[in-house]
Every structure is written in C-alpha cells, then in structure tokens.
Write a structure and sequence with these properties.
Helix content: 25-40%
Mean pLDDT: 96
Bound molecules: guanosine-5'-triphosphate, magnesium ion
Distance between the termini: 21 Å
Protein name: GTP-binding protein
Largest sheet: 6 strands, mixed
Keywords: GTP-binding, Hydrolase, Nucleotide-binding
InterPro entries: Gliding_Motility_GTPase (IPR052705), Gpn (IPR004130), P-loop_NTPase (IPR027417)
Number of strands: 8
Order of helices and strands: EHEEEEHEHHEHEH
Number of domains: 1
GO molecular function: GTP binding; hydrolase activity
CATH class: Alpha Beta
Strand order of the largest sheet: 4-5-1-6-7-8
Pfam family, one: ATP_bind_1
Structural class: alpha/beta
C-alpha cells in the first residue's frame, strides 16, 4: 500500500514542529537543534531535517505527517520530503513582517506537489495588529491563479490541526 503522507511547511517559527507534536498519536520524531542566529530571539530550537508523526484516520488508515525545516538553508530537505506526498499544509505566521510573501516562497517551492495533489493554508497569530486578513490571503491566491482553502488555526491546538487535515482531505476528494 502507498504511504499516506501529508507535509507541513512554512517559515521558521510558524509552528510545524508544534503542529505535528499536537496531532501525533506516537511520540513525534523531531530533529531540532538550538537556534544560534536571529531566530534565537524568537525561539530556542529549529528543525534541521524533518518532523514526523502519525494519526489514525476515521477509516482506520494511518496518516504519516512530515514537517519540513522552515529555514532556507535546509531547503534541500523540502524536495526530499515532498516525494510521494498526497497533500501540503502551509503554515503562515501572521506576526512576521510579510506573511503573504512567506506563503509565496512555499507555494513556489512546492508548486508541483500542489498541482498534482492539493494544499491548504493555515494562518496563526491572527491577533497581530495591522496584519493581513484571511481575505487578503485568499485574494492573493486568486490573483496568482490558485483556489486554496485558507483557515485560521493555532498549531498548539489539536482540534485546529485536525480540522486542517479534514479540510485537506475534503479538498483532495474534489481534485
Ligand atoms: N502565541 C502563539 N504562539 C504560537 C502560535 N502558533 C505557534 N506558536 C508558538 O510558536 C513556536 C513555533 O515553533 P516551532 O513549532 O518550533 O516552529 P517551526 O515552524 O517548526 O520552526 P522551524 O523548525 O524553525 O522552521 C512555538 O513556541 C509555538 O508554541 C500562535 O498562534 N500563538
Ligand atoms: Mg520545526
């Protein structure tokens, strides 16, 4: 049987490692090391290779969840992790300077996967003052010819993350 595999991606600190640890029914596998650069001001660790977790779907199948490193310098892992994936979740951190430009980086890098399968966009830290609305994300996606679901979701909340998986699965059923 083919592996059922979803990928979480997005910029450093968006919450990919957090999301997988919120959802996973097995102890998640992480590959975090201490942050040393500018990122150290925001958080203590960063992913250098991948995150891994598992969740059982309502039909009993096991879904494998992989998280990419956010940092560009580890981008060689993005392609490796995307192989054989059935869908993509792009996490956006609305407190970053230009979160829509962040989204574009991952849309571009995973364009082939998105075209072949599907993707959802999840935005956290929505309470950030003067930050984009969900409508802004959606409009931008439309402008570049993509119709993807855009949701507000907190990676620390398991229910939010399960809702994302559900949305992605529903999207894929219509591809
Ligand atoms: N307050 C708040 N904190 C959040 C929210 N979403 C994520 N976080 C926090 O942001 C941090 C995200 O860290 P990670 O999960 O390591 O981020 P990552 O995307 O894996 O980052 P890299 O591996 O460096 O690419 C965690 O400390 C989360 O608790 C949110 O909506 N609100
Ligand atoms: Mg991480």
């Amino acid at each position: 049987m083919n592996e059922l595999k979803f990928i979480f991606t997005g910029p450093p600190g968006a919450g990919k490692t957090t999301a997988i640890s919120s959802i996973s029914e097995i102890p998640p596998v992480a590959s975090d090391v201490a942050t040393t650069d500018d990122l150290a001001e925001i958080k203590q660790t960063t992913t250098v290779a991948m995150d891994f977790g598992e969740v059982t779907l309502p039909d009993g199948q096991i879904l494998h969840l992989y998280g990419t490193p956010g940092q560009r310098r580890f981008r060689h892992m993005w392609e490796i992790l995307a192989q054989g994936a059935l869908g993509l979740i792009i996490l956006c951190d609305n407190s970053r300077p230009d979160p829509i430009a962040d989204m574009d980086i991952y849309l571009e890098n995973f364009a082939q996967l998105i075209e072949q399968t599907g993707a959802v966009v999840a935005v956290n830290r929505m309470e950030t003052p003067n930050s984009p609305t969900l409508e802004d994300y959606y409009t931008h996606l439309q402008d570049i010819g993509l119709i993807l679901p855009v949701l507000a979701a907190d990676p620390r909340e398991r229910e939010d993350m399960l809702m994302l998986l559900d949305t992605l699965i529903t999207t894929l059923e219509y591809v």
